[in-house]
Write the structure tokens for this entry.
Amino acid sequence: MADIESFKCRLVTYDEISNWCADIADKVRKMDYRPEVVIGLTRGGWVPARILCDELLIKKLYAVKTEHWGVTANPDGNALLTQELITDVSNEKVLVIDDITDTGDSLKLAVNHVKEKNPAQVVSAALIHIGHSGYVPDVYSHTISSADWTWFIFPWNVHEDMRTILPKTLYEPKNKKDIQQAFVEQFQIEPSSELLDKTLGVLRDLGKIKENNGLWQVL
């Protein structure tokens, strides 16, 4: 039998994201900081960036892109800036936002890049900060200790993460009910029946798994 991989996951809701963004906005206001520009790290920081623009009455929204060369639930790898800031933010107050600081490499890289553009000031933010991160954002809402490390599955990458995680349940052939139970036992989450059906179908169409007499297995 193959090794059984397991780690703690959490399915994040849009209500949680909205609440975390509102909390960050409140903390930014309490700092007496009035950003004129919001920069979101794509892909994870893009939705929070747009919400913060709404919360903080900001019209200027831009993006930089960093890519973390790893896979789902693998905190190792190196961050690389793949899309630079292409607008002038000189003498403006900037807020840079990402969804989570795990290693913190991506946010640190983005902040340093923005600082090269001669802004008046840069404040960094993340919805979630994990204690072992090598970079601590200026503002964050939700904190996770290193001992309670969790893989957060955000709504904007739920299908991507499910396509990565689901095959880990198929260390032996399983029917759908057993796959659902495996998610609880291995990853501490309960994806909906509809989400499982969609993920199974996509993985099948991609040639990653197959179904035989009600049992799913990795190819």
